[in-house]
Each structure stands twice: as structure tokens, then as C-alpha cells.
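Repro:
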Amino acid sequence: MSNPCENDDLAGNPDMTLLFSSHRGLAVLLLLTIFINVVGSSFNPANAADRAAETSPRQYNIPPGPLSEVLNRFAEQAGIFFSGDAKLTQDHNSPGLQGQYSEQDAMAKLLQGSGLHAEQDASGSYILQSLPTGVTTLPTVKVEADRETAVSPIIGYVAKRSATGTKTDTPIIETPQSISVVTADRIAAIGTTTLRDALAYTPGVNVSPYGPDSRFESTWFFLRGFDTYNPGPYMDGLTLRNNYTWAVWQTDNYAAERVEILRGPASVLYGQGSPGGVVNIVSKRPTLEPLHEVQLQVGSYNRYQLAGDFSGAVNQNDQLLYRVTAVARDAEYPIEGEADDRLFIAPSLTWNPSADTSVTFLSHYLRGRAGVYSRVVMEQGSLVPLPDGSHSPRTFVGDPGFDRQDQDQWAVGYSAEHHVNEKWKLQQNLRYGQIRTRLDEVFSGTNYITVNPNDPDDPANFRSINRAVFGSNEKARVFSVDNQVEGHFSHGLFEDTLLLGLDYQNSSFDAVTYFGDAQAPLNLYAPEYNQQINSNVAPYFNGNTKLEQTGLYAQLQSKFAQRLVVTLGGRYDWAKSHVQDAATVTNLKQSDGKFTGRAGLVYLLPAGFAPYVSYSESFTPSSTINPDNGEPFKPETARQNEIGLRYQPEGRSDSYSIAAFDLRRQNYITVDKVSNKPKQTGEVTVKGVELEALFKPLRDLNVTASYSWTPKAEVTASSNPDELGVNINGVSKHMGSLWADYLVGGGVKVGVGTRYVGPNHGIGDTAITEVPSYALIDAMLGYASGNWDFKLNARNLTDRVHITSCGGGSCYLGDQRRVNVTAGYRW
């Protein structure tokens, strides 16, 4: 293998030099935003220097709950910072806070009867401590009350720690790779109903490359220009594996504590995967403090949903903690008769037999009974007018009487850790799950039915379409386990974290899949549904695919003088696949081995700035056969150079980041134009800059902003010269989003956001003409009073009709307007 760094030194690469120099304005914009917020903080009522907030009453509507959670919500709303021993709030509940209070009066009210009080230090922060008892007082303990861990709940929109980028509980500011975290509070605020909705306000993510598609709501989105469909997302650090089939794991946002996006190759941590990065869902886990919540949601398309979340201690010594999260939904897709029904339940249990050992058992069951919904239309009649200047109606081309997607899935597993001593920790994450899927659908072809060949422009030639039928009956079984040894060492000015791991995946996919002519043409102007669909089609695949992967990895995180953080990692994977297909009498076995590496450097400057640089790799086995030797081609690879800057101002929850990257997918299979044979000579290059900012310019105002500039996303090497320069995934040069919500007062909160995707020329640059840009508007209106919380969310508020992409004669329309009202009660 060639030197992965050859000709890619950032300082000497002309393309990267141009990339960074030509967009200094982005860096200036980031620094200007930071400057405005830093300077503006002197006028912020939350700033320690401005104590007007102590005497100026303001409205609070904080529901009852565990004291620690109520205090965190109060600190987030008031814009203040607490420190104190976490054990002080244990076993204490709070009635919450409703009404107008000054800062001091509010704290006194919250702490009343708890035996605690808060003292202010010179910096303006508050120190939580016990009230004196007789002559005995608890000494002040300056342990940050921000007890955030990589899996803990987050109050607000900004997370400071994550394990997705390192597999260790690491501050995000010390992670040398671009990462975003979407918290549960943020998921609820922006009104998400699917995983891709939750990612819509993060940079580098195209959540609708093919419009809405009910079959792949949890998997089909692009990261940095590359598809993440295979191997799919992760949950709690373990793969939700799929194999380019329709047995795809479904997830539920209500069960997620946070969703984390690691951009760029990540095989050192996770083995084979997409060049674009990893999406990891962190599940809700049991809490020591009692939690009781029920939600009722009604909305567009006959949506009725009941959800509940309950947690607390099982016994008095707090060794056993439980949590049950559940969702029951009766709904339809935007087509009448296309159901979207679901039953989901996720029980979990944490066992703490000692202070050094903890085991959390995680499980879920999902039953889905739904139709099949997508928005595919003909390119001629949508992107461009028909010959008479008109456009085709946006008719649903499936059939509610035939379409169905029935899925039953379940998984059980655990996350166990044991602290051997102060230096060493052992951890094991394990999960086994199964999916049964039955999919039957009708979809359109790519041509209209010609009824008048003598006049190609006759409007009658553009009224009806032929349709195809497709179906698959599948069962998938997925087992994965990740064993880790983590060591912590200090010597002189060095603090080191060593991670050694061995993970293993074993997946099996049984499928009987068919495709053929539905023999049921559809008049787009007078659609007739519930036709007799031809489903008597012989399967083109009838077999089993087994995938196996074993990975041995090591990672060192070394911090010098509390300023310089070096991350080095390496991994070797053994990957095997075995495909047996009775339909084509295929019996194919393949074995691959691959080493991947990673290196990163972060420098922690005073005042919260952290520039970084990193290099990372990934690989994906290829199933394409080399005609020269009859063996599968060697794995595709990817490598990325990235430089960036993070800023987390001290004493505030703001977070800013900017990253520039050069990402290359190599060993890409292309077809030689002369010999018509596949060759492994291709390369796809994506270069860009991404910016993300989460900040509070005012105490009651949350702002989330993102921007992605991708000037290059094209084939840069191919055995077919015609492919050079082609944008294979139709990546837009510009994408951006902005969300802001404001607590008006009296428990009322308002929010509005916009999501923008720039123009492109379709998948593989094959669109007839440029696919236009679009901007969508989302909105939220909330009201909280006592134990109640009400929220009205609208996605695509103006119901704008927009095309997300085109290719192969078809175009994909984006989501229609969706409005939901949610009423929650918490006690």
C-alpha cells in the first residue's frame, strides 16, 4: 500500500492551500461571531460582572423533578454556573419553580428543605454545600455540578463530552475530528419524528438525498458527500448492521438521549464503514432520581401517539435502577391508506453491585405495520416542463392497497464496566438482535407510456406511466461485542489514556427478493389505486449472506502540560463474507484483512480556543469480481486530512467549531470504457469547510447555526475518462441552517428555523438541467406551566414543493408540511 500521506501535506497541497486561502472569510465569520458574543457577554444578564439579574425578577416555569435536574434546568435558564459535590443532591426532589423570582430568591426557593445552600464565589459562580449541623459543617467541595458523561442526559443543546470520537469519555474539545451532538432537548425543540429529522440542523449532512423514503428513515442520508446506508448507524457504540437489503434497523427518537455525528473515516474505532463518518445513537439509561413522564401527540396525517418514560431506583440501596421508554403510534403517511403504525418499548436495568462495577442491560422491541411511502416523479414534468409547458401532477405512484412494510425487531445486550483500580478499567459492550421484514411495493418506471408515436410532443404521451413491482421477505440476525481495556497514567507533565480493544461482529441475512412488471399502469391525472398487481414474479435472489468481522485496535491519548493533546490509533481487521444464492446458483466466499490508522493533535489555548489537525482512514470490502483472476477486488479505502478550530468560552455553554477537510475514497471500482471490464483505479475526492455554532447571545435565546461549503465532490481518477469530474452523489456546493428559540416569558417559548440546500446537477451530473436550491422553514410554539409542557411544531411550514435530487430520468420530491401538537406531563 502506498504511503497514505504522500502528496497530501496540507501546507504543500495546492488544492488545500486554495481551499483554505479562498475561504478565509469563513474563518473571519467564525471569529467575528465569537468576538460579538464575547464582547456582548458584558451586556448579557448571565455574565458574572452584571449582577442586575440578582434583583431583577424573571419568569420561571421549571417542572418538578429530581433536585439535580431541576437545578441544572434553572442554571441553564438563568445563565449561571453551579459547582458542588454531586452526592449532595442525591435522594432530593424539588417541587420545581413557577412564577417570577430574582436569582437569589429562586435559589432559596429551590433549595428550601433540602439542607443545602449556595454561596457565590469571586467569579460569580455558585458553590453548593450543606447547611451547618451543630458544630459540624461540610467543607466546600469545588467539584463541577456539571456531571456530564459521554452517556448522561444533557440539559439544553450543548454537550461537552462524547465517546463516539474516541471510545473513551473525552471532552469534545480534545477530540481531533469534527463531531456534533444533538441532545434530547434539541431533538424535542425542533420537532423531529425520524432520525434524519434530528440531523437536519448539523453541518455536512444531507438528510434527504432521495426525498422521504419510509424504508430507510434511519439510514439514508449523506455525510460529507458519501452514503451512510451501509453498514448503517450505530447504537451505544455497536453497529445496527444492514447489508444493502431491506431488513434495516428502525430507531425511535423518543428513546435517544443524544445523537452523535462523527465526520470522516473512522475504521480505527469501528472497522469497515462509510468514508463520510459515523452516526451513533446514545440510548436513554436508568437514572437514580425518579422520572415519570407521559406524552400525547396528535398531528398531520391522522397521527396519534402516546409515549411514556419512567425511571428510578428499584431497591433502597440504589443497587438496581430501572427505565422503561415506550411509544405507541397510530398514523398514516401523507397518502391516505398508507399506514405508519408502531409499537416500541425499551426496558433497561442498571445493576451496581459495588462502587467499582456497573452493568446496564439494554433492550428494545419494535413492531411496525406500515405502507411504503416515497415521492418519486418523472424528471420531465417536474424538473423541466412537458412539451406543452405544463407540469405533471404530483401523484403518488405506489398503491395503498398493495404496499406494505411489516417489521418486527428486537435486541438485548448490556454495557458492563469494572474499575480494577485507579488506573485500569475493563469494559464490555454486547448486543444480539433480530429483524423480520416483509416488504411489497409498487413504484414507477422512468418513462411515460407513449400512445402517439407519430407525435412525440402529444400531451397524451405524458399522462400515464408503467409501474414495477418489488418485494422482499427477510430475516436478519446481528451479534456484536466490543471488549476494552482502558488505562490512565500520569508521569510528570504527561497524562495518558491507553485504550486496547477487540471487537467482533457476526451477521446473517436471509432474503427472498423479487422484481418485475406490476402490469398496472397508472394515469397520473386520474389515478386508479387498488388495482390487481402482478406479484407472481420469480425471485432474483433467494439465499443467505453471512458477514463476519474481527478487529484488534489500540489508541493512545496523551496530554502534555494540560495543553497539548496527541491522539494516535491503529487497528487491524479480518473481514469475511459468504453469499449463497439458490436463484443464481452462487456460492461466493471472500476474506479480507486491512490495517487502518489515525493521528490527531489538539492544542488547548487559554480562554477556550482549541485548534486541531488530524488524519484518519477507513475501508469497505468489495464484492465485485476481478475478471483477471476471478477473485473479489481488494477493499475500497478512504483517507482524510482535516484541520479545525473549536471554541468553548469559559463559564458559558456556547460551542463553536470550524473544520476544513480533504476526503478521498480510493480503490473505487470503475468500468474501463474500452474493455468494458471493472478495474480498481477510481478515486472520489470531496473537499470542504464546515461551520457550527451553538450559543446563547441572550440568557433566554438559544441559537444553532451551521454552514457547509463543498467546492469539490467529484471523480478524480477512473478507468473511464468520461467519469472524470463527475459529481457522483449530486453534492450541493452550499448547505446551511439556522435555528433560534426564545423564552418570551410566562412559560411561552417561540422558535423558528430555516434549512437551505443549494443547487446541483443531479446524481452523477445526469439531470437534464440544474436542480434548483430550496430553503424550508420550521417553527415551534411552546408553553410550560407547572408539570405540564405543550409544544406545537411545524416542519416545512409553508409546505414548499421542492426537488431534493434527480437522476436516471427520475426526481425526488422533499417532505411535505407536517404539524404536530405534543402535550407532556411530568412528575
